[in-house]
Design brief:
Number of helices: 12
Helix content: 25-40%
Radius of gyration: 19 Å
CATH class: Alpha Beta
Structural class: alpha+beta
Order of helices and strands: EEEEEHHHHHHEEHHHHEEEHHEE
Number of domains: 1
Oligomer: single chain
CATH architecture: 3-Layer(aba) Sandwich
Number of strands: 12
Strand content: 15-25%
CATH topology: Beta-lactamase
Length: 349
Amino acid sequence: MTITIQPLVLSNNAIKTDVMTAELWRGAVLESKHSIHATLVNEAGEVLASAGDPLLTTTARSSLKPFQLWAGLRRGVSDEPSFSDEELALMCASHNGEPEHIQGCEALLHKLGATVSDLECGAHAPYHSPSAEAILRSGESYTALHNNCSGKHCGLLALRSYLKAQGSYLDPNHPTQQVIFDSVRELLNINRALAIGVDGCSLPTPELQLKEMALLFARLASGRASEGSSQDPHLERIFKAMSAHPRLVAGTGRFDTALMSVAPGQVVSKVGGEAIRGVAIRTPDGGRYGVALKVSDGAMRALHPACLAFLERCGFLTRAQLTGDLARFVNYPETNWSGLEVTRIHIRG
């Protein structure tokens, strides 16, 4: 099933000061609440709709991956060796560690003349439980390839090699990171120093305002590095690569894969740790928009239904379209070990 993203439709109260709330209900009992901030901007960075505070600051986490890749591509990283669209999608991925992800990253390392030991992301079990169990049954161990960020780290190895730099690319002062920070500042047209934290895969992750995160994704949707500039071929290629290969960006059962799969060529969605997400949107009337959402307490279970609710509020999606693979994310029901549904999430605001 495919759907068509609708043109933007905003009511007079589109900009709200109240946050959205995700309520977790266990039967008739309201058990937990999560607060969500969400922001929609156009190519000019104007806030068109919001819930909560567009100036909320948070770390970008893995939502930054498309722009970390852009920093390298615009420098010429893909000139030699050349990368396929599938490989570019993997470089933007927070993947499940399924066989297609591991094989793709192995091929990337081979192309770069690198080995698993060159990846500095650390090892963890695949997010995809059947893949993790298969590795255990085989008697093998998890490696850095199974890390959900291994594709991004392959991209950083490529950038480090292109720059002929030495040392750990994890260092915020390393040339690879400086190129990335400079590129992010250029996309946002800002000059300030970026406050930096450490991501789960050990890379530096900058602090940005929510509306700045949304603007990055508006840039990705427009394919232009600044308002009114000519088309940027690298932004355009990243959008098309991620949109065309949603399974490589995430994988089985994942929200980003589901959303991009039902709206091919229209949406790029990228999650980050502690429940942040950016969405790049192209509408049939030529609209180009960016959305950013953040769950205040970092609860991922609230992020997926909140994202669908905000996109519906803005008119991009209709309730009738939230079927098929997207249906399970509307209320994100949880089942217990006996298979009984025990909780559902409802979005307010």
